[in-house]
Amino acid sequence: MRSTAVGTIYIEIKHNKFFDYNYEKVKIMNKLAIKEILTLSGVDPEPSYYSGRPATLSDLNSKILDKIYRGIAENISKEAADNYLQLVDELEYLSATAFLKMIYRLEQNEWKFDYSLAQNNSNTSYTSPGTTFGTFGSRLGQSNSCRNDVTIDIKREFLRNHGIKI
Q1: C or N terminus of the chain, fewer CB within 10 Å?
Q2: How far apart are CA 74 and CA 88, in angstroms?
Q3: Do residues 11 and 4 lie in contact, with contact meaning Cβ atoms separated by under 8 Å?
Q4: Closest CA to 69 of 84, 87, 86
Q5: Residues 23-63: pLDDT tens digits?
Q6: What is the pLDDT of residue 12?
Q7: Could you tell me which residues are beta bridge partners of residue 28?
Q8: Which region holds residue 30: left if phi is over 0, alpha if psi is between -120 and 50, else beta?
Q9: CA distance 157 to 84
């Protein structure tokens, strides 16, 4: 392990077995924030990166959801991770954009699950002017059953591994 002082903050470079690759992190109370957890789990933390894209296994899948769960449990709390699990279970639509917006809402709610967090979660929840046409176009060929089937595929294994039946 190598650490160098930068003012009163230490930059630590080490091998992290949890995420199984080298990374740099700012060591502040030895915890990672949700954006770092997402990044280390293979998710771009900016919802706009995924805007206009449907729910797809290339953006989110059970392995990624589980990495995020373990990162939250390790760096925030087990209770926060369990509330994240409940949120994923309740979400009806898991495009990466919708998922990121919901996880940030959970974080703003101090990692306490509330059913209102998962409400209004649909493919129409993100309609910024810059992505309206892309979203519209990507939805033309999809039916609700197709969209829901992809969401189920994204979270099925993750939920089963945590004892939740679908």
Answers
A1: N
A2: 18
A3: yes
A4: 84
A5: 444 444 557 899 999 999 999 999 999 999 999 999 999 99
A6: 45
A7: 31
A8: left
A9: 15
